């Protein structure tokens, strides 16, 4: 097992424990309120042994993840944390979530689920919250917080910020929108969820299954990991088998994207200047040479890109191929809401385009042609000038992650 860090909503640091190999299908485990990733220890081991790559996440304010100074534990922050983590993974995981984590996972996957996950497992998830259920949740949080000073594994402020009624109300309308294979796991003796409620909920899912663990009230406990692990592995083998994923016309776009991600690429920043003189740029890895005579290259830019209109109309643009030390610049030009050039060394090149200092190579181009390309447009440039630094190593991108070049 290794420890990895993710960037959550508003930059909150989230920590996870990862086991298994990178090539195994991924499973993301999300604990409940007042718990940490340690609750999954037995389940995680079983899944790794079954050939899965397991990511056990600590939610904000729990375990090794950051306890935000502003005490923000509202539903939106927790949901956006999870969506941020899913976006940072190299492939779509099966999401397995318990109690509070189940509410968060359901809300996070109620839109564009197929782009973020391959399936969903909900464990011990309360489907309605009456006074008795709310008292039960509060009691569990209180018991979990009874630790000596300095030993707490979760932020006690969560207890005040956590509103089970709000969570359940938000979750009530999302079932029909979860377009994923979904397994609902209920302890057969559960006081939080009745058999009728569980059956009705599963019936409202587009692709749902129900399983009950006999003789148990709650199934995410130390004494029932074997039973839970068996149900999870059965569901995974049936609904997310370890065989090669397959895309066919009409399948979900993320599978196609994952297949394309098997082609390792370099990383570029495409730059131009607005009519008012403001520099613009974005990160792109759909870049290739086209012709040596005449010297042509192309880059594909999403139609939805904020700077797309400027790049499409610009008479001149530059393609800056990044080297391994420019990963921060790649992230900066891929993000939103900041001045991308403020902390990036650059200059106006000989032909009036922004050239990033220290790049592996930079190509200043005149616009040769623009072609439609589905949800992207294809920008073809005639190279006017190229500079390069042969002693640097390239920044590589493969299966959704930055990579380093390893020489044989």
From TrEMBL:
SMART domains per UniProt: Flavin_Reduct
The entry's keywords: Oxidoreductase
Record-linked InterPro entries: AB_hydrolase_1, AB_hydrolase_fold, Flavin_Rdtase-like_dom, NADH-dep_flavin_reductase, Split_barrel_FMN-bd
GO BP term, pick one: pyrimidine nucleobase catabolic process
Domain Flavin reductase like: 260-404
Pfam families (UniProt xref): Abhydrolase_1, Flavin_Reduct
A single GO molecular function term of this UniProt record: riboflavin reductase (NADPH) activity
Full protein name: Flavin reductase (DIM6/NTAB) family NADH-FMN oxidoreductase RutF/pimeloyl-ACP methyl ester carboxylesterase
Organism: Sphingopyxis panaciterrulae
Record lineage: Bacteria, Pseudomonadati, Pseudomonadota, Alphaproteobacteria, Sphingomonadales
